[in-house]
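Marked as duplicate of an earlier ticket. Keeping the data here for the record.
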Amino acid sequence: MSGFFGIASKKDCAMQLFFGVDYHSHLGTRRGGLAIYGEEGFQRSIHSIENAPFRTKFEKDIQVMKGNIGIGCISDMEAQPLLINSHLGSYAISTVGRINNIEELKELCFKQGKIQFIEMNKGLINPTELVASLINLKDNLVDGIKYAQEVIDGSISILLLFKDKIIAARDKVGRTPVIIGKKKGSAGAHCVTFESSAYLNLGFEYVRDLGPGEIVSITSEEVEVLKQKNQCMKICAFLWSYYGYPTSNYEGINVEAMRYRCGSLLRKRDNVDVDAVAGVPDSGIAHAIGYSNESGIPYTRPFIKYTLTWTKSFMPTNQSQRNMIAKMKLIPVTELIKGKKLLLIDDSIVRGTQLRETVDFLYDAGVKQVHVRPACPPIMYGCKYLNFSRSISDMELMTRKVIAELEDVEFVSDELTNEYINPDGEKYQKMVNKIGEKMNFSSLRYHRLDDLIASIGLEPCKLCTYCFDGKEEND
C-alpha cells in the first residue's frame, strides 16, 4: 500500500507535514518523500525507509525545508513525490493505487505526446511519473486527471502540489480514502490525508471525505470543488479489517469499533470451548477483544510483539527473510500458553505462511489446542486494484492451493474458484477443513462476507469485496 498527506497553511508547515506523513508509516515499507514550496521554490527529499523508520531518515531534511504548502507520502513501491514541469505548470505529484496496464499506457503516451520516461531497474518506469504524463496530455488539470483515471486499469488517487494550492483527486470509485481536515481555531490551514488519524494530534478537525472521482483545490482558506463526485463507490473492505489504522475513520466508520463488531459477530456463529481468546498483533487484537467481550471468555496476550528494533519498515522483500523476522518478533508468555486451549484471531489468511509459523510457535510453547478464526472471509482472488499483498500470483493464495489439491489440478481458474465461495456450500466446507488440516489448526472458521459487511455498516453496493467474491466494479 501507500499513503499520502498534504497541508496548505498561512504559516510554515514543514514540521506538521513531517508528522502527518509519519503517521502513514504503517502503509508502506520502501520509500518516503516530502515536497514543499517556499521562498526558494520547490524543495524535495526522498529516502529509502527499508532499513530505518521514516522519521529517522527525514529529521535532518525537515530542519532546512521551509514553506507554507507541501505534500508527502509513504510508499511500498515507487519513489515519490515527483517534480514535474509541464504546460500545466510546475508541480509535485504523489499517488496511491495500482496500475495494471502500465505498458499499454506508456505506448499511449509515446503515441500522443512523444513523451520520455526515466527508466528504472529492469526497464520499468515510475507509475507516478506515468500518471503525470497522462494528466499532461490534456489542456487543463481537471480534464487531465479525469482522463488519467479513465484510462488506468486499477485505481489511482492523486495529490498535486502547486505553489499556491493542492489539487486532490480521489480515485473514480473511491477504493481508497481522501479526507479533508481544517485547522481548529483562527489559524488558517487545511490538510488532505489518507488516514484521518494523521491530523488528530496536529490541531486539525474533520471536514469531510472526498467522494469517488471528486477533485478539489485546497488552500489555507478554502476547499473548492473542481469536479463533483461520481455516484458509484467501491471502497475497499480490507481498509477496516487489515491495513487501516485503529484510530482512523473512513466514510465516518471507525476502524477499531468495526473490528470489535467483527469479533462479536464471529462469536455469535461460534460455540467453541476454549480457555482464552488472543489476537495476532497488531490488527488481530481488536477483533479478538470483540470476540472476548461477546463470549465472556478472557482475552489474553500469550505472546508479545517485539518492535523496538524489528520495526515494520525493516521487512525485506525476500519471503524467507520476512518469515524469519516475523517469527523473531513474537516472544511467548509460557504461563499463558502451556496446557491452554486458545482461540486465535488473525486479520486474514493470504498465503498462510506466517500464521502457520505462529501456530507452530504456540505448540512449541506447550499449547494444548489452537482454534483459528480469521476476521475476513477466505481470500479467493488477488487484489488487482491496490497493492496490499506481496503475492504475485493468485496461485500463491492458500485457498487456491487447497482447491488445486481437492480438484487434482495444477491451475485453479476463476470459474472453479467460484464453486468454493458459498459459505453454506459443501465445497466451501471441504476447502476450510483442508486449510485447517494443512495449517495444523484444532479448528478453523472464517468470518462470513455478509457478517463482514454488517461489521462495517455500509451498503454492500458501496464496498469492494473482489478479493472475497470476485465481483467486479459494475457487477
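See parent ticket for discussion. Residues 5 and 193 are 4 Å apart (CA to CA).
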